[in-house]
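Bit of a strange request maybe. I'm writing a small parser for structure token strings and I need a real example to test against, not something I typed by hand. Could someone generate the tokens for this chain?
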Amino acid sequence: MKKSAGKAVAVIIIANIFLIMFAFCGHILGKFTYSDHLDEKVITVDDKDITLREFGYYIYEVEAFVQNQALLYDPENPGLWWNTHFSAGMDSQFVCDYAKKVAINMCIADEIYYRQALSQGLSLTSNEEAQVLDDVSNLINNMDSRQLLSTGLDEKIIFDISKKHAMASKCAEKLVKDRNLAAYYEEPAGEVNWDGAYFQEQILPEHTIRMNDSVLDKITFGKITVNLL
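Reply from user aminoacidic:
Good idea to test on real output. This should exercise your parser:
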């Protein structure tokens, strides 16, 4: 009986060791490595796919803005702000999650307005083109090599998206002039913004948006271009 009990215990111990090994290997194999997914699509607006590399532009812009808030909140530990949870009923969320929401929706709005601008024959003036070049130069000068590497951005991608953003802004400004927004309560510029009621109710429903949650769900804002170890 003692021998049988000893063998049984040994089998259980060995089985547990294998379970731990399998769990560890599964964790390693399942680990999300951001750089491995740079050229995967993360958002599709109608028939236009946007890759994680392109989305990196919005990640950087939003992370830079929120990081300034985080440093004011706690200069020694900015991660505290990123992990702060705001309770607001159904809208309760962590700062890092809200930052991701902002970046995603900015990207979607830019793509929608940019396509509208092209269909309306809008273009940038020479002054507006010059402003885009200045914006690109400033952004690249503000990004260090680690940030460029982590996002996979380069000067051409930054220029293309900066120009897209400028065209989208021009289209939104034209929309404010052309449409009667008297039925809405916010300032007209706010209504056509991604979180404005007019945009949400009148513009967004006209487009098909698809998200690649298998990638987006694994991205944690506050750790991609800021607070790098």
